[in-house]
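Much of what follows relies on a compact textual record of a protein's fold. The record below shows the convention in full:
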Amino acid sequence: MRILLQGPVSPCLTSQSSNSKSARGPPIKGKFIFLSTINCSVHSQRDARSICLSNSRSNLRSISAKAASVEVSTGTAASDVLKALSQIIDPDFGTDIVSCGFIKDLNVDEAIGEVSFRLELTTPACPIKDMFEQQANEVVAAVPWVKTVNVTMSAQPAKPVFAGQLPVGLQTISNIVAVSSCKGGVGKSTVAVNLAYTLAGMGARVGIFDADVYGPSLPTMVSPENRLLEVDPEKKAIIPTEYLGVKLISFGYAGQGRAIMRGPMVSGVINQLLTTTDWGELDYLVIDMPPGTGDIQLTLCQVVPLTAAVIVTTPQKLALIDVAKGVRMFSKLKVVQQFGIPHLFDLPIRPNLSASGDSGIPEVVADPQGEVAEIFQNLGVSVVQQCAKIRQQVSTSVTYDKSLKAIKVKVPDSDEEFLLHPATVRRNDRSAQSVDEWTGEQKLQYTDIRDDIEPEEIRPMGNYAVSITWPDGFSQIAPYEQLQTMERLVGIPQLIPTQA
């Protein structure tokens, strides 16, 4: 199979993605991984990973050499420690881990030379967390007065980065990854299940949602001890079943087998299963999408804040035609912007891979050291990279600078950064409260907005817009595409990039 992943790179990872410039198009809400079934070598992926780790070790040696020359600052002992830690630069963002906010709970006792702190990464599945821990220990230990260093590794709490009213069951899920093919029988469910268990093996909290009501695959591919879903009478929430620590939801576990019902009813069942389940805290929820581009797929894409998408196909022309339809569907729903996909993985068709799907034990669990497991490990690393980068990008894409009294905008996947006057943004609202939907008549007048207006809060709305709350209580949805067309502030101090 061939896996192709499009998306940014995590602030805690060093794997490299291909350079692919985004042409202007529909705003982005997620990224793609593309998988095609073809017996092909993955040496390039292994080599890339080896180079990545080699470069990381080179960086570590460089950092260690620099740390040896750290001098005691004229400030506090804590400043000495932070100065040392600021030498560790995130290889993807070019920003040190102190500026990234990774250092938590710093305790310093200069008298006895003891330092302790927590290094909080963006995800527990960070594949180079051990290397970060080693770097942190070495640079702090090189401070002259330090005798003992205690580093605790942790990850940020699971929570969605997107604003808006999410169902309770989805409010503690960090990333939702859709695995789609738009064509049946190409290995989509195999990829979804093995990807989920790979992420779990990397240390993440993972769930799988089987969205195929007509032909659920999860009950065949995974065999939990409890094969029936239960309902918590107090919370009125569905309790997922589990297998090897991964939470599972499928219509096949509802005791109904396969559904015989019309489309609107199926959409309602899927919505209920997904949003009323008590998923708990998850780092990744993998959704095994049903084939096609109909009501079910539209419902899922519109209800769920997708972070990334994995596309699975075979090399045959007929399968690729359906895949193209699926990509266009995601594009129209603002899940992706383009077909440029820098991550490609080849998964060979093997009898044992098919057999594991029938046995109830995922291949990456049955043979964790095998060729298939290695390919899924590379795929898992890429998924972690993309999701973490997206979260970092959207959380800092639009901010308010009180000193400049201006809104800073840096659209994800763009190097351009510019400033907008808050009043300009507010006056350009295109919602029904500001513009008549039928006539197009402007209801919000220029003089209705004060020139000194300031936003109270700015929050991301997926990877395509932000929600801005104003003093009058109005919540404005401002798409990045629209912000890029507004009149910009000029004649003020130039934006200075963050210095490493």
Summary: The first strand starts at residue 2 and ends at 5. Residues 371-396 form the longest helix (26 residues). Residues 27 and 464 are 5 Å apart (CA to CA). Confidence is low (pLDDT under 50) at residues 6-75, 496-500.
